[in-house]
TrEMBL record:
PANTHER family: FLAGELLAR BIOSYNTHETIC PROTEIN FLIQ
Keyword field contains Mitochondrion: no
Membrane topology summary: Multi-pass membrane protein
Places the protein is found: Cell membrane; Bacterial flagellum basal body
Gene that produces this protein: fliQ
Transmembrane segments: 20-39, 51-70
Domain of life (superkingdom): Bacteria
This protein's name: Flagellar biosynthetic protein FliQ
Family listed: Belongs to the FliQ/MopD/SpaQ family.
Protein's organism: Isoptericola luteus
Assigned keywords, A-Z: Bacterial flagellum, Cell membrane, Cell projection, Cilium, Flagellum, Membrane, Transmembrane, Transmembrane helix
Length: 91
């Protein structure tokens, strides 16, 4: 197996990981920013006020995007398994 193939697979894997993590991370970022803005305006510094809404929003994001995330991962895995013969030099 050539080094270019390994680098290509690693690049595809990292891109897939970023693509799958994006909905959860962006949701957490937006909700965290909104809650922190509300905390700054009202001067309420309660830890649970920040944690609970983010946890609920992340759960909702996983429910909404979960099917898409699984289908993307399955198609990526199928593509990787289809590349095995060419990577081993079999054709």
């Amino acid at each position: 197996m050539e080094t270019t193939a390994v680098i290509d697979i690693a690049t595809l894997a990292l891109a897939m990981a970023a693509k799958l993590a994006a909905p959860v991370l962006i949701t957490s970022l937006v909700v965290g920013f909104a809650i922190s803005l509300v905390q700054s305006v009202t001067q309420i510094q309660e830890i649970t006020l920040s944690f609970v809404p983010k946890a609920v929003a992340v759960a909702v994001a996983l429910i909404v995007c979960g099917n898409w995330m699984i289908s993307e991962m399955v198609s990526f895995t199928h593509a990787m398994f289809e590349q095995i013969p060419t990577l081993l030099g079999g054709g």
